Amino acid sequence: MARKKQDIFTTFTTATSTALGKPWVFFIAVCVLLLWGISGPLLGFSDTWQLIINTSTTIITFLMVFIIQNTQNRDTMAMNIKQDAIMRKLGITAQDLLQAEQKGVQQLEKQVKKIETKKRRSQATQVKRRT
């Protein structure tokens, strides 16, 4: 079976999020911040000195939001597909469960209460059968 070529953005975000999630990247970021902090007295804590770190961190944060969101969206979609396949394999066909990710928080909370009620009833039935 031939593998489909991933689009450039997906390839980029996957590689970037994998690389940036490593401990050595955190260590490098801490070192950069320490060097910046140490350079403060040497540069007289100037406005330019402050602007460098403020601008750099703002740009990095802005770009990372899109990378993280893309990665999270793909992970969530993959997880939903896998869970749906498992539910179908187990014969769980309740549409409200299969489409849970499309519901609001209040609807999901109601669904959780329904499931908890069914669970308690099931446990009570099992206890009665044992006795």
Structure write-up:
With 131 residues, the chain is mainly α. It has two domains: 8-93; 95-131. 81% of the residues lie in helices and 0% in strands. Helix 1 crosses helix 3. The longest helix is centred in the middle third of the chain and has 43 residues, at 47-89. The chain is elongated and about 80 Å long. 1% of the residues are buried. The model has no long low-confidence stretch (mean pLDDT 87).
Structural class: mainly alpha
| Overall pLDDT confidence | 87
Low-confidence segments, ≥5 residues, pLDDT <50? none
How would a textbook summarize the main sheet? Answer: none
Provide a count of the helices. Answer: 5
Features:
5 helices; mainly alpha; 131 residues; 2 domains
Chart the SSEs and their pairings:
Elements: H1 8-20, H2 23-42, H3 47-89, H4 95-98, H5 105-130
